[in-house]
Write a structure and sequence with these properties.
By secondary structure, the protein is an alpha/beta fold. It contains eleven helices and five strands.
């Protein structure tokens, strides 16, 4: 009888210990374990890498971003720039993101007419001083638009210069976002612009001679020259995509600007090559759509 009593006592103690251990075990488990009320502990929502509403914008690049020939012949017109202009006809990327008042105080344009990719690190260094939350990049057309095919920027140099520009940004601003526009389809711009006698006269002043020189020539040599320029532009765009893809805070337009079928309405009525005001608005639409697309 006494033995039976002792066995029962040990059994009760073991049961109590098991219950105690079980309760302690539940309390020691991480956030997925149910609490006393049977609810799960809340988990923190990760902050997205990409902010679709950056609070300031800087632009770097070439004549397209300066609005060259959009308002008057052979003249910059930054007020219609797709990136930072204040024109109501364009509604630039900065205006769409920041509002007109915000864009006036928190957007900056460091692009330069005639600039090539080798100029981008210097432009980026100036942009960095403003500490923008977004940098908009459009460069590369002038690397293909040279006095001859042989003078075009080699692809390896183009890549090295773009990588240098990105390093310049990242050394100071590791969290600033970057939007990269592709180089436009220069051959399409030639095919559209050559319908204008005035445009072809302006081309003779030295606008993109590698593509636009001898605009009406359709012989084998001219055809091969234009095809070579076209291939170089495609190679540049591949570089822009690849370098951007390595940076978690960079988005390229994935070739949208290159693929856009610019018509005569989107080309300058002075040189029939650079974007018109309407063309600038189309570039702004593509940029805004890319920057505000949901993502990680």
């Amino acid at each position: 009888m006494e033995q039976t009593t002792r066995r029962r006592g040990r059994t009760v103690l073991a049961a109590v210990a098991a219950v105690a251990f079980g309760v302690a075990g539940c309390d020691a488990v991480g956030g997925d374990a149910p609490g006393a009320a049977g609810t799960k502990a809340p988990s923190a929502r990760p902050t997205p890498l990409w902010d679709t509403r950056p609070d300031s914008v800087a632009a770097v690049g070439d004549s397209i971003t300066r609005g060259f020939d959009a308002c008057a012949v052979l003249t910059d017109c930054p007020e219609v720039s797709w990136a930072t202009g204040d024109s109501e006809q364009v509604d630039s990327l900065a205006v769409r993101l920041l509002g007109r008042t915000g864009a006036a105080g928190r957007s900056w344009n460091y692009a330069a007419t005639g600039a090539r990719m080798e100029d981008l690190p210097g432009q980026m260094a100036r942009a960095v001083k403003r500490e923008p939350e977004l940098v908009a990049v459009m460069a590369g057309a002038n690397d293909a638009c040279r006095e001859s095919v042989s003078a075009m920027t080699p692809v390896a140099e183009f890549r090295a210069d773009f990588e240098a520009a990105m390093r310049t940004l990242r050394r100071s601003l590791p969290k600033t976002q970057v939007y990269v526009a592709s180089v436009p389809d220069l051959k399409r711009l030639w095919s559209q612009g050559r319908t204008s006698a005035l445009g072809k006269q302006v081309w003779k002043l030295g606008i993109c001679p590698s593509m636009l020189g001898d605009a009406d020539a359709l012989d084998a040599a001219a055809t091969e020259r234009r095809a070579t320029v076209q291939k170089r532009v495609e190679d540049y765009n591949e570089v822009l995509r690849e370098v951007c893809a390595k940076d978690s805070r960079c988005r390229s337009d994935d070739g949208e600007v290159y693929a856009y079928r610019f018509g005569t309405a989107q080309l300058s009525r002075w040189d029939w090559f650079h974007p018109s005001v309407d063309g600038q608005a189309k570039l702004a639409e593509i940029a805004y759509r890319t920057v505000t697309a949901p993502g990680p």
